[in-house]
Design goal:
Strand content: 15-25%
CATH topology of the largest domain: TIM Barrel
Order of helices and strands: HEHEHEHEHEHEEHEHEHHEHEHHHH
Strand order of the largest sheet: 1-9-8-6-5-4-3-2
Shape: globular
CATH architecture of the largest domain: Alpha-Beta Barrel
Length: 324
């Protein structure tokens, strides 16, 4: 079994974490990842205090293992954050603060509640800022990932963040479907989103799960189109999503989308409910090209851990020659 400092810090068996993916998270998926020895997570952005309490209770009903509650700092509701702190999760996860937004008030309150803190950063400067504010773990997210991402790829970003924030441990995110590559870049584990979206417990419509399986990894696109349709402004982020008819219709015509946003978002929501992969938004990373089945979330954790151990213990040592 591979153990890193993150396993000891978070009291988990495998250095494998679930991304806090907002509407794409669920108590069943969160609990399944944690039960398997990873770190489950539940996206709390845009949830009311009561919804956070209900989903946390549902998760705890299925597992007594650690999991995290995830907040987007640029748009965090105080009443929802306070409710989450009262629940005292093992981990409080943060991401996407505005550049003028202080991190320490949130971090300090989370530490006072007994939580460990993770912060997701897509740039070295932001990672250093979070480490100085007291984050226990930095998540370095490359642009290959699905959903909201920055502009630098995982290959250069992760070792740069590792060097910049050490000895604070780093989880690698953005385009990963296994763990060995992340470890080789200096990270102490991985955080996965797209891989878990194609799981039995994922709340996605089956058609969207199948679209991930069918992807060759070349059918994603960075844009602001889903956010324009939703009326959201993220601080410095683009969205990587599946390139479909909806994206192609508005690419280069974002001004027109702003004019017709109400009608567009209504169609998006209807398409999501119907499982219409041509018109509905699907945030997914380029690692979709590495995903070929829809197993349980627990099996994904076990499989990735076993594959990483196999490569590190058996395959890589054969590449190291002995001195003559």
């Amino acid at each position: 079994m591979i153990r890193t400092s993150i396993c000891d810090l978070l009291e988990i068996d495998h250095p494998i974490a679930l991304g806090g993916m907002g509407s794409a998270s669920s108590p069943a998926m969160t609990a399944a990842v944690s039960r398997a020895g990873g770190l489950g997570a539940m996206g709390c952005h845009y949830l009311s205090p009561e919804q956070i309490r209900e989903r946390t209770a549902a998760t705890r009903k299925e597992t007594n293992k650690p999991f995290g509650l995830n907040f987007l700092l640029f748009d965090t509701r105080e009443d929802s954050f306070a409710a989450a702190l009262e629940l005292r999760p093992a981990v409080m996860q943060f991401a996407w603060a505005r550049t003028d937004q202080e991190l320490s008030p949130y971090f300090d309150r989370a530490h006072e509640a007994g939580c460990k803190i993770t912060y997701m950063a897509s740039a070295v400067k932001e990672a250093v800022r979070a480490a100085k504010a007291g984050a226990d773990i930095i998540i370095a997210q490359g642009s290959e990932g699905g959903g909201h991402v920055g502009w630098m790829g995982s290959m250069p970003l992760i070792p740069m963040v590792v060097d910049a924030v050490g000895p604070v441990p780093v989880l690698a995110a953005g385009g990963f479907a296994d763990g060995v590559a992340a470890l080789s870049l200096g990270a102490q584990g991985i955080l996965l989103g797209t891989r878990f979206l194609a799981s039995v417990e994922s709340p996605l419509h089956p058609n969207f799960k199948q679209a991930i399986v069918d992807s060759d990894g070349h059918d994603t696109q960075l844009s602001e189109i889903p956010d324009i349709a939703a009326g959201l402004v993220w601080p410095g982020a683009m969205t990587r999503s599946r390139r479909n008819k909806f994206i192609e219709r508005w690419a280069g015509r974002e001004w027109a989308l702003r004019q017709h946003r109400a009608a567009a978002i209504a169609k998006l929501r209807a398409a999501r409910e119907a499982g219409d992969v041509d018109e509905g938004p699907l945030s997914m990373g380029q690692d979709a090209g590495l995903i070929w089945d829809i197993p349980s979330a627990g099996e994904i954790v076990t499989r990735i851990a076993q594959q990483a151990e196999e490569i590190l213990m058996r395959t890589l040592p054969r590449l190291v020659g002995t001195a003559n």
